[in-house]
Specification:
The structure is a single chain. This protein has 204 residues and is an alpha+beta fold. It has five helices and eight strands; from the N terminus they run H-E-E-E-H-E-H-E-E-H-E-E-H. Strands 3-2-1-4-8-7-6-5 form an eight-stranded mixed sheet, sandwiched between helices. Bound molecules: zinc ion.
Length: 204
């Protein structure tokens, strides 16, 4: 097994369980990944269809950039694995996290016609990497949802190129994607963006 995999699997499980308890990944939704190696790419990722509140270490998969499972596991990688791989490639991320919260689901529909959501003036913006003032203006792009993950991954790549400073994006009526240089930063970005989305949602 690749070095550090067990510790990474445990960190993914801890994040998933915490987010499950907060109602952000109910009903087996959401998925989480972390880069174990970049060349060749090796990604530890949660499996498809698993309860995120009760993951076990043996359920965490190790995949390559073509979504082949490298470790011994009967489980299937998340259907959304192509999006994780693409975010890692486009952003050089060390970890990618995807939640299905009520607020991200609702706001991704309400703001869809503008293809994004502006977040400005909140102190909590300073929890995003590189942001040093509440006066920061964050643009959270919104993409139409799809079950064609190969095509959607291509659209994600275009969106990330168009918005090089974005810390995440929304899929319409679906949920939030964010990432970080490591698992800790990605987890913080989920907490910050979910907080901001809930703040905006409750106010409107
Ligand atoms: Zn999803």
């Amino acid at each position: 097994m690749i070095e550090g995999f067990t510790e990474t699997a445990e960190s993914l499980i801890a994040a998933a369980a915490n987010f499950y308890q907060r109602g952000w990944v109910l009903g087996t939704s959401g998925n989480f990944s972390a880069v174990m190696s970049r060349a060749p790419l090796r990604l530890a990722i949660t499996p498809s269809g698993a309860d995120k509140g009760a993951l076990r270490p043996e359920q965490i998969l190790l995949i390559d950039e073509h979504l082949n499972v490298i470790n011994q596991s009967a489980a299937k990688p998340s259907d959304e694995s192509p999006l994780h791989v693409r975010v890692v490639q486009e952003r050089g991320a060390g970890a990618v996290m995807h939640t299905h919260s009520i607020w991200s689901t609702m706001l991704s529909d309400v703001h869809f016609e503008r293809h994004g959501l502006e977040i400005e003036g909140f102190e909590m913006l300073k929890g995003l990497a590189g942001v040093t003032t509440h006066e920061h203006r964050e643009w959270l792009p919104i993409l139409e949802n799809s079950q064609d993950m190969a095509r959607l991954a291509g659209e994600v790549a275009v969106t990330l190129t168009e918005h090089p400073n974005a810390h995440g994006f929304l899929l319409r009526k679906h949920g939030l994607y964010t990432w970080g240089k490591n698992l800790g930063e990605a987890r913080r970005h989920v907490e910050i963006l979910e907080f901001l989305l809930e703040s905006i949602g409750r106010r409107s």
